[in-house]
Specification:
This protein is of the alpha/beta class. The protein has 3 domains: about 190 residues, FAD/NAD(P)-binding domain, CATH 3.50.50; about 140 residues, FAD/NAD(P)-binding domain (3-Layer(bba) Sandwich), CATH 3.50.50; about 60 residues, no CATH class. α1 packs parallel to α9. The longest helix has 23 residues. It is globular, with a radius of gyration of 22 Å. It starts with a strand and ends in an 8-residue tail after the last helix. Bound molecules: flavin-adenine dinucleotide. The site of flavin-adenine dinucleotide has 33 residues, from β2, α2, α7 and α9.
């Protein structure tokens, strides 16, 4: 049977594996294998909520092995570390026991393919700024988001204890990058702080212990959104007590301070890097595979590598042109649209047919600002027609986007059961994780 291997089970890869499994896998027309470095999937746009402790990770992660069983594909756990496109095979790294690192759980393995889809996503790009990789924390993976949450929690607990000795001080948090990730994280941190105060882990009143500043190198936050929305978002952040620094890029990060191009030095307790993306380094080391300056695989209108007919790429790790001077943006909605397209294109290809090129439709963006507010605009696919949304309605739409992803992955019935179970559990638990 034709062997289709998808590397990366994120927003795009998991949806593609599920769609192909439900069609070609179920009908035994192809053997579909999903590879991922982690055993579970968490939708990446939720990571800032993980970092702020406002998301119950157990309720939102999907186990690849179970998903594979239910949707007629197989799952291989491991990180792709090498690709030999000449002999159409890729190598997965060995897996070691976390507790006993000398013990190998799975040895290094080669997986062969006839069609390969690269869906490895992206990482934060530190642009070579001195000290950024060493001293700033990122939120590229679930583990990193969890580590950040624990660091914030411990800082608050320690600070609260110091209060009794009169040594209490504010915790200075610098968020580098005023895009959607940085802005949403700032909103979530305020929610985290409110809950900590409510449950006695955090003491100061009336304003918080978190002194949050968003540093944006450009002239406005949310540069990808219309100016009016940027201005409203900035106002909302200010109402939440978040400071915004514009047009003064960070040039150096050290253990407890950051320096901007104008020479301004700010002391910091935690620096969170949320600016820019680049695709995983492994893509830049593959012999003969065309990639751009940030390791994204260069693809044609059919999402096929321009250097290899048997390799496709989607999502953040693909460089796909959109309009004359722009590429498809690294967003969950783009990964979703590309997964839907590739499911049809790969199935048509197996039948010796071809379908038209991929066309990205921008449906707008919504940015969440804490528990009950969001802001953004919906375009609806009609050029020139856009709808500005704010407040509770925008938040509802924002939540609906995630439910749409879950429905595409788990089906409507399982999603409804999960949502109801989650709502019931939330009634008996604090809104923010406190340990
Ligand atoms: C905090 C945050 C908030 C965001 N908010 C939004 C938002 O509100 N709206 C929006 O549209 N977008 C948002 N994004 C962007 C969005 O998450 C991405 O565009 C989207 O997830 C890309 O999907 P993908 O399938 O390309 O990759 P991902 O979803 O990143 O998945 C990549 C997968 O590949 C796996 N992988 C990576 N390397 C290897 C390897 N070598 N071997 C095996 N497996 C590997 C990873 O484990 C992961 O499962 C946000 C991103 C972040 C970080």
């Amino acid at each position: 049977m034709h062997r289709i291997v998808i590397v990366g089970g994120g927003a795009g890869g998991l949806e593609l594996a599920t769609r192909l499994g439900d069609t070609m896998g179920r009908e035994q027309k192809a053997l579909i294998t999903l590879v991922d470095a982690c055993p579970t999937h968490v939708w990446k746009p939720l990571l800032h909520e993980v970092a702020a402790g406002s998301l119950d990770v157990d309720a939102h992660q999907i186990e690849y092995a179970a998903q594979a069983h239910w949707h007629h594909f197989s799952f291989a756990l491991g990180e792709m570390v090498e690709l030999d496109s000449g002999s159409r095979r890729l190598r997965l790294s060995e897996i070691r026991d976390d507790e006993r690192p000398n013990e190998v759980v799975l040895p290094t393995r080669w997986i062969e393919y006839d069609t390969l889809v690269l869906a490895l996503g992206s990482r934060t790009h530190s642009f070579g700024i001195s000290g950024a990789e060493t001293h700033a924390v990122t939120m590229d993976t679930l583990e990193q988001a969890e580590r950040l949450r624990k660091r914030l929690l411990h800082t608050c607990v320690r600070n609260n204890a110091l209060k009794e000795a009169g040594l209490h001080r504010t915790v200075k948090i610098a968020i580098i990058g005023g895009g959607a990730t940085g802005v949403e994280l700032a909103g979530e941190l305020r929610r985290m702080e409110e809950s900590f105060r409510k449950f006695g882990l955090h003491a100061s009143e009336p304003t918080g212990d978190f002194e949050i500043t968003v540093f944006e190198a450009g002239t406005r936050i949310l540069p990808a959104l219309p100016e009016r929305i940027s201005a409203m978002a900035q106002q909302m952040l200010q109402q939440l007590g978040v400071s915004v620094s514009l047009s003064d890029p960070i040039v150096e990060v050290s253990r407890d301070q950051i320096r901007t191009r104008s020479g301004h030095i700010a002391t910091t307790d935690i620096v969170i890097w949320a600016a820019g993306i680049k695709a995983p380094a492994v893509l830049g080391c593959i012999n003969g595979l065309a990639v751009n300056h940030i390791n994204q695989v260069t693809v044609d209108g059919k999402l096929r590598s321009v250097s290899d007919d048997n390799i496709f790429a989607l999502g953040d790790c693909a460089s796909c042109s959109w309009t004359n001077d722009r590429s498809v943006p690294p967003r969950a909605q783009a990964a979703h649209q590309q997964a839907v397209y590739l499911a049809k294109a790969i199935s048509a290809r197996a039948r010796g047919m071809a379908i038209g090129d991929f066309h990205y439709t921008d449906y707008g963006s919504l940015v969440s600002l804490g528990s009950s507010k969001a802001i953004g605009h919906l375009i609806g696919g009609f050029p020139g027609a856009s709808l500005l949304l704010e407040g509770g309605l925008a938040k509802l739409m924002y939540t609906a986007l995630y439910q749409k992803h879950r429905t595409a992955i788990s089906g409507l019935r399982r999603t409804i059961v999960d949502v109801l179970a989650h709502r019931l559990r939330r009634m008996a638990r604090p809104r923010v994780k406190l340990h």
